[in-house]
Amino acid sequence: MRRTRLDAATKDLDPPFAIVDLDAFDHNAADLARRAAGHPIRVASKSIRVRELVSRALERPGYAGVMCYSLAEALWLSEQNVSEDLLVAYPTADRASLQKLAANETARQRVTIMVDSTEHLDFVDAAIGPHADIRVCLELDVSWRPLPGVHIGPRRSSIHTPQQAKALAAKITQRTGFKLVGVMAYEGQIAGLGDNPPGQPLRALGIRFIQSKSGPELVQRRTAVVSAVRQVADLEFVNGGGTGSLELTGSDPSVTELAAGSGLFGPTLFDGYQAFRPEPAALFALSVVRKPTKRVATLFAGGYIASGTPTPDRQPSPYLPSGLKTLGLEGAGEVQTPVTGKAAEQLKIGDRVWMRHAKAGELFERFDEVHLVHGDRIERTVPTYRGERRNFG
After folding, report:
1. Which of 48-62, 192-206, 212-226 has the highest mean pLDDT?
2. Which of 24, 207, 240, 315, CA to CA, is 20 to 30 A from 47?
3. Is the four-CA dihedral 285, 323, 342, 329 of positive or negative sign?
4. How many other CB atoms are there within 10 angstroms of residue 60's CB atom?
5. Which residues contact 29 (CB under 8 A, 6 or more apart)?
6. pLDDT higher than threshold 80 for residue 157
């Protein structure tokens, strides 16, 4: 029984604390590689935020390179020799980090920054002055636009068509101090939106319809974009996908690599997919500190709300013992989290409840360290980014 095993492994610890179950982590890593069907997976560090675990994933077959969420993080991971291939997934306006990048030859060879306009190039030039080549990746907007004025997907790049992509690629190649090496296209309306949300059958039908139309259009358009960009630049990679869309993205002949991170931890937002189900690997434990009624147990702390829309699916959820839920009028709170259900009848003061976070790496902004559990023992305890005094935003 998993609860018994985890309780035994952590019996000497006082909650709140966080763990990663390495058996589940490794299972998820193998399943992601299986789903990638031969495409290398770039590890999305935003969804991990534990250097030891980024390295653990990179040591496995089928994984290569890191998708960082800030330039400062990429520079740090380069200094730590975590990877020699570091793609910054979002444009940067961090002048200090750009200056460090420009001054460090090793970093310039390892780090690729993201752009989707000439304004990004202008910002780099203004921040660092004349400079040697900076590696850049062109980001494509792959939202679905079925009708004029309708935008379904994340608000990311300003580049949507093959013509726009080729025009920007040509401008990049003509600029001194930049080298265009890649294209990235993240289909958030598929990769990050589960097609089987629990208890929402009508929403599920709507999502499946959107994805069934968006997916084929995306593959066709991304292929055309890459073909157009390759006419003016010698690309090293074309990145796409996320945990929720590995199969679709892998079917695109223009894509050379995939990206994934959340699927290694299996947070609750990834319970809503038909095609796959990761094992919950990242958990946190809270103590029972009150029993206001027979069927309610109040836990200490726990209000670790995920970013995004302020909806109930962003709250952490009770996991073990099974059969617990939070209260609709109180939810997960800063100093207390009441849970109810039949399982609460058996809980006593000092017992622990295992919780799951809604998103992956954000959990570790709450803890300085994470205990890596293997079987019924703690294999080792390692620092999170926060524990290494690294906060990237």
Report:
1. 48-62
2. 207
3. positive
4. 14
5. 57, 60, 63, 264
6. yes
The residue assigned the tokens 């945990």 is 243
Q: Which two tokens stand for residue 11?
A: 């019996």
**C-alpha distances in Å from residue 131, one per residue of 127, 237, 385:** 10, 24, 30
d(CA 180, CA 182): 6
- How would residue 248 be classed by pLDDT, with cut points 50, 70 and 90? confident
Whole-angstrom CA distances from 253 to 220, 222, 227, 256, 341 are: 10, 9, 11, 8, 49
Question: Is residue 362 predicted with pLDDT exceeding 70?
Answer: yes
CA atoms within 13 A on the CB side of 209: 7
Contact by Cβ (8 Å): 373, 9: yes
- Measured CA to CA, the distance from residue 189 to residue 208 in angstroms comes to 10
Question: Radius of gyration of the chain from Cα atoms?
Answer: 22
Amino acid at 158: S
Residue 276 identity: F
Q: Closest Cα to residue 355, out of 298, 285, 289?
A: 285
Give tens-digit pLDDT for 95-133.
Answer: 999 999 999 999 999 999 999 999 999 999 999 999 999
Alpha-carbon distances, residue 239 vs 40, 67, 110, 141, 311 (angstroms): 10, 10, 16, 13, 30
How far from 159 is each of 115, 185, 221, CA to CA, in Å?
Answer: 10, 10, 12
- Report phi then psi at 120, rounded to 5: -65, -40
Q: Say what the pLDDT of residue 356 is.
A: 98
Q: Is the peptide bond before 321 cis (omega within 30 degrees of 0)?
A: yes
Q: What is the pLDDT of residue 192?
A: 64
CB atoms < 10 A from the CB of 240, how many? Answer: 29
pLDDT(83) > 90: yes
Residue listed under structure tokens 């025009």? 167
- Structure confidence by residue, pLDDT tens digits, 176-197: 999 999 999 987 666 666 666 7
Given this model, what pLDDT does residue 206 score?
66
Candidates 95, 114, 172, 108; CA nearest to 134 is: 108
Interior angle at CA 57, CA 51 and CA 60, nearest 5:
145
